[in-house]
Write a structure and sequence with these properties.
Length: about 325
Amino acid sequence: MATSIKYISEFFPEEKYTNDDFFKEFPQLEKQKKSLEKIGVENRHIISKSETSLDLAIKAAKKLFKEHPVQPNDIDFIIFCSLEFEYTLPSTAAVFQDKLGLSKNIGAIDIVSSCTGFIHSLSVAKGLMDTNGHQNILMLFPSSLTKEFHPKDYNSKFIFGDGASAVLLKNEKENSIGQFVFGTDGSRKDYIIIKDGRGRNPINESSYTNNINEYGNVSCNANFFMNGTGVFLFGIKTIPQLINDILTKNNKTHDEIDYFVLHQANEFLLESIRKKSNIPKEKFIIHLKDTGNTVASTIPLALNSLMKKGESLSEKTVLIAAFGTGLTWGGTIVKL
């Protein structure tokens, strides 16, 4: 039996945050408009204060059951991959099972992962199917990262958006997911981090002290921080080699890949990786103009964009690769 990505559905919060909204909020950045537009984002969806990642995941899953020939009772395992969870415990995957009234005879786990989360979750799901015979695994990738931004953190506000994807993996005779390549460098954990609020650094009186960088961007230890330059240089150096490693491990060449779908970090970085890797534009998918960077959801959203355009992927070979917080990276080759 072979594991395949069978169906994908997506959901976005109602509130939109356009580039016009951004420049009204940060008028001092009008002079940097051309540079910022190279990031490739024009619109984003923003979660409301009363919503959580679980709410987004539930709505994405309900769309999956409505849009595709799969029912809640078909699901025999749940993977909930996010950075926001309902409680410290129990797992949000367990809460999701109850909210949707799924069978009690299923497994349900949380995976704490961000931009590489789709790859991490896919590998775990494939292992469960290969070793335990699961037939239908529902993977959920909700992102509500905008809740973690400092109000004056214009870098993050321009790049990221909220949303969720629900992905059904099915055990079938045809189609497959290939061998995975992974990487981790915890020495660069500070590149993307929320420093205070958990076990090592509880919230304290200095957690909300503003940190202003040389460009005037503001963050604090209680909020999300990203070293944009560091992440860019990491991506340029690491991801072309990752692509080569994925091809080698799966005994494929560049010419045998129909599409390359990478984590949609930002268009400027993606284009730089594409050029360095000598990938033709027509094979390289960029899909973040109307969503922004939605963390672990970017790859399934990009794959779904192909499906919604009527692209037949049943005979297509797709290389997928992601990179982000940790720092972590990984990828594989799939036939959809």
